[in-house]
Design goal:
Elements: H1 5-16, H2 34-48, E1 54-57, H3 65-81, E2 86-87, H4 90-105, H5 111-120, E3 125-133, E4 140-149, E5 154-163, H6 166-172, H7 176-188, E6 195-204, H8 212-226, E7 232-234, H9 237-247, E8 263-272, E9 275-284, E10 291-300, H10 301-306, E11 314-315, E12 318-319, H11 322-331, E13 344-348, E14 354-356, E15 360-361, E16 363-367, E17 371-378, E18 383-388, E19 397-398, E20 402-406, E21 412-413, E22 419-428, E23 440-441, H12 444-450, E24 453-454, E25 460-461, E26 465-474
Parallel strand pairs: 1-2, 1-3, 6-7, 6-8, 14-26
Antiparallel strand pairs: 3-4, 4-5, 8-9, 9-10, 11-12, 13-16, 15-21, 16-20, 17-18, 17-19, 17-22, 18-23, 22-26, 24-25
Helix pairs in contact: 1-4, 2-3, 4-5, 7-8
Length: about 475
């Protein structure tokens, strides 16, 4: 499992760059066994770190969770058995990991916060590291260990070459199901009592896009969470749907209505040279929506192929190209809500952004101020059409602080084709006239024109607020 400590290494080394004290390495030309490399790494720091130091030794960034656990246990034993240090309680390590990761993801990492987070949990020196392959076709790995003195703002490192012995091979060859189960077991250790959880959107990189990989991850996470029955209770689909409506899509800035769901697992995945990297977060639904735990793991390319999982949605049974996907994202970017004058959201009635053939969909609009809105639907093929208002009886006015359910007295039936579709919403302070009729192809020009409507005195109006969401239709 790849844990969060590649991020910790990057963030800590970045702010220590000018003051970093780097120790020389002594790599063997032929490499070492995994056990020998761990012993030499530990002894290197044990000999150099001050007696009585308070050590926080946290999981290494590794290809599998089993390997990460093994390295942590071995390194911990070496440090503890040296009788030189005070080891920080393991129960605090997950909190150090999660808080530093959260700071990194929100872009607020700096020296004072790293020092504060680590010091709060009684640590003076943070020991962490990573193990990575030398590249395709190589049987060797590089293990790099770091020890950062929080008080002195100095860091030392030890890098060694490791050959693939039987021990390392057995720790690398872990099934994907075992990896997901390991992630859920680790997350379960971060909660103090039985917690009702739901699985939210697990999307492609930093977009809202979900795919067959998202659906598989959701099912695997639920299965892994159910095995941690002493810590997790998985919400039903109806409970998740109700939560999605009440939370307006679980937005970071908005309070969540009272619900039995206490935490949500969300995340994203990104392509690697040989597979995909998945990042998951367990987020509290109460208070300031703190990140309770975060984990990462890798899905090998062979597993993606064997399970027929794709990063991006399909169209006509074929995964769309990244070029087509990016062009679609660029075209609808004006509806991102980046320049909104007030809080305005639109969300589907599913938490994960996935519908199956035969499902029904409704959506919820929320506006902080009263306004008049228009909804455009973009289908799998990029065809665009106004779907609300379309009749004189359609009431496209929303009051301040109101949540509107669309359609008013009906539901949209989810049918073919399969793939990603989008809902785009724009709103205006004054009533307007909808000039478009029929279907138009999606294009940047169309979206630009579609962002303006005509008032009753024939003048163009620019929207005050916009919003959008995407959803993916999959076979049942």
């Amino acid at each position: 499992m790849k844990t969060v400590f590649s991020f910790i290494a990057l963030s800590i080394l970045a702010f220590l760059l000018l003051t970093c004290i780097s120790q020389p390495t002594n790599n063997s030309a032929s490499g070492l066994s995994l056990d020998s490399a761990l012993y030499e790494s530990a002894m290197y720091f044990i000999d150099r770190l001050p007696n009585g130091a308070k050590i926080a030794l946290v999981p290494f960034d590794t290809p599998t969770g089993r390997l990460s656990d093994y390295i942590l246990e071995e390194m911990w034993n070496f440090f503890e058995n040296s009788n030189k240090f005070t080891m920080v309680d393991r129960r605090n390590l997950a909190r150090i990991e999660t808080e530093i990761r959260h700071q990194y993801e929100t872009g607020r990492v700096n020296e004072n916060e790293i020092v504060s987070i680590t010091r709060q949990h009684g640590a003076e020196i943070l020991v962490y590291g990573q193990i990575v392959s030398f590249g395709s076709g190589s049987s060797e790995y590089r293990i790099t260990s770091y020890a950062t003195d929080i008080e002195k703002a100095s860091s030392s490192q030890r890098a060694l070459t490791v050959y693939t012995d039987n021990r390392l091979l057995s720790l690398l060859n872990v099934s994907l199901d075992d990896e997901v189960e390991h992630v859920m077991r680790t997350m379960a250790r971060a909660v103090n009592q039985k917690t009702v959880i739901a699985v939210g959107r697990i999307s492609y990189e930093d977009t809202q896009t979900v795919s067959s990989l998202s659906a598989w991850l959701k099912n695997s996470i639920i299965s892994g969470a159910q095995k941690q029955h002493d810590k997790f209770q998985v919400a039903t689909e109806n409970e998740s749907a109700s939560f999605a409506v009440a939370s307006r899509g679980f937005t970071a800035s908005e309070p969540v209505a009272e619900s039995s769901i206490q935490a949500v697992i969300t995340g994203n995945y990104s392509p690697l040279d040989r597979g995909a990297e998945v990042s998951l977060r367990l987020i509290s639904t109460t208070g300031n929506k703190a990140v309770i735990a975060s984990q990462k793991f890798v899905i090998p390319a062979s597993e993606l192929e064997r399970r027929k999982l794709s990063f991006l949605p399909e169209k006509n049974g074929v995964t769309i190209s990244k070029t087509e996907f990016e062009a679609k994202q660029d075209a609808v970017d004006p509806y991102s809500g980046k320049n909104n004058n007030w809080l305005f959201t639109v969300t589907p009635d599913v938490l994960d952004g996935i519908y199956y053939l035969g499902d029904y969909m409704t959506m919820q609009l929320y506006s902080e101020q009263e306004c008049y809105f228009r909804i455009i639907h973009i289908d799998v093929y990029g065809n665009s059409q106004v779907i609300y208002p379309v009749a004189d009886a359609d009431n496209n006015f929303i009051r301040a602080g109101e949540t509107r359910h669309i359609p008013d007295n009906n539901r949209y039936l989810i049918s073919l084709p399969l793939g990603e579709e989008l809902i785009l919403v724009s709103a205006y302070e004054n009533p307007f006239i909808v000039r478009q009729s029929g279907i138009s192809p999606l294009s940047p020009d169309y979206v630009s024109r579609g962002l303006t409507v005509e008032s009753k005195n024939e003048t163009e109006m620019t929207p005050c607020v916009t919003a959008r969401f995407s959803y993916t239709v999959l076979p049942r």
